[in-house]
Amino acid sequence: MKKALVLALLALSVAVLAGGAFAADKPLVVGFSQIGAESGWRTAETESVISAAKDLGIDLKFSDGQQKQENQIKAIRSFIAQGVDGILLAPVVETGWEPVLGEAKKANIPVILLDRGITVNDESLYVCKITSDFVFEGKEAAKWVIAETGGTANVVQLQGTPGASAATERQKGFEEGIKDAPGIKILESQTGDFTMELGKQVMEAFLKKYGKDINVVYAHNDDMGLGAIQAIKEAGFKPGEDIKIITVDATKAAFEAMVAGEMNAVVECNPLLGPLAFETLKKAIAGETLEKWIVQKDEVFTKDQAPSVIGDRKY
Ligand code: GYE
User: 183 C-alpha vs ligand 1 centroid, how far in Å?
Assistant: First the structure.
């Protein structure tokens, strides 16, 4: 009788232990506040995060902010209310995040910034950011323009979303890059909000205003550059020849445009951040100290390289 009781207790404690172990293995719950679906780049990033979550057995709560910060703030609040283990935030703009990130911090939920940066007084409001170096990208674009044109060109700039770090810093890098090239003139800069549609519209207006005086389009992303190509064609010019085009991202669509001779160069920006994002978040949850900025390395590709490289492109 006694022996049976001991065995029963033993069985019970084994079950409790197993239960405990099972609890520790329960899937990580992560909230991802995505900006929207404004570009091919962003679609590639969304797919990368969703498929990495699947591979790692992570329970992902996905929210599309439709390019609005207020939607992203709402999403983060709902992630906090649901008690997620961590949050990935792709911040549409740089400012205005203190209150909501303060709430996440109070709830002890680590936040990792994905693909764009923010400016906050208190850096402890987020664990780290995983982004490309946009100033570097802008400088690379400037270098290419100077080399390609021999240092004399009228440039129009299609800017990304106003207030987005990716836009501000790509502009800053470009301006720094042409500082010592007085022959490179920026005729005008306008935002195309990182979309093909607005990129086309803004380019139409530029063409009306400056016509043949435009030598180069510098677009802060591929989609706006692709929109500009359409506008240039409709205005009766040859994109890639009459007007040269350099963009940032290096998506498949841009490579196709380069192979067709309609785009001249791209500065890469890697959107395949899903696996690294979760690996980093797991470390943060485990209490590891991380670098504040995990920088992605990018390179420039030109039209001449495009045919041999396009097959290897992953996005
Ligand atoms: O370059 C652009 C997108 O934040 C780095 O956002 C990202 C940028 C990317 O819409 O295509």
Answer: 29
